Amino acid sequence: MTTIGKQTFVLVHGAWYGAWAWHKVASGLREMGHTVTTPTLTGQGERKRCGNDTATLTTHIDDIVDHIMMEDLQEVTLVGWSYGGMVITGVLARIPEKIKSVIYLDAYVPGDGKTFMDYTLPVVSALFEEYKQNDQAIPPMPWEFMGVDDQEVIDFVSPRQVSHPWRTLYEPAKVLPWPSGMPISYIWCTRTMFLKDIMEGMKQDARVRLELLDGNHLCMLTAPDETIEILAKLAE
Predict the structure, then answer these.
(1) Rounded distance between C-alpha atoms, residue 104 and residue 188, angstroms
(2) HSE toward the beta carbon, residue 191, CA cutoff 13 A
(3) How far is 157 from 26, CA to CA, in rounded Å?
(4) Beta bridge pairs of residue 105
(5) Cα–Cα distance between 106 and 191 in angstroms, integer?
(6) pTM, whole model, 2 decimals?
(7) Using one digit for the tens of pLDDT, what is the confidence trace for 143-175?
(8) Residue 188 and residue 212 in contact, taking contact as beta carbons nearer than 8 Å
């Protein structure tokens, strides 16, 4: 695999996951000569004992802003997967001068004042509400919902998933207009039907470059080579 020019990627995972979700994609991009960082959000992954009961969307946005600033990263290609789309939208609003381009990887793209819950199915909202009322972190979604039946992937992911802080899903996003001329891309995994409405919205936006990936929501694990190729192409 080859690409033009070295890029700096910051890969932001989704709910219930951690930096570990990117191990194949990060390795592949690094082999192509790119700089890649994969910060773990508060309360997730190896940081599961840190703030799992208190983290908000703002906390997670702070995580990525602080990571970029502390590492002194410049001209960042910011990638958000799934819930990570909520996070990177907030990051872009905070430090646009550090961001070269934004890629939503099968991700949520909030409007101003909208929460993650505004984009969920009613059956999911009802389930999550129970955990909110009990002030409990939300456990991972069933594999059937994710469209994943690869047992090797399930065996790898299951022991690493961590219940997700409910407050992050209920906090409204603060969204500013996208900076003029900044490349914005959306990758839709075509087997992820619960994000189809968001994808259709992105499709109607002339500023957004849309790419389709024939895979399920866990594309970084189930279709890593295809994910790597598309990310590298969009970052050029």
Answers:
(1) 8
(2) 15
(3) 17
(4) 81, 187
(5) 10
(6) 0.96
(7) 888 888 899 999 999 999 999 999 999 999 999
(8) yes
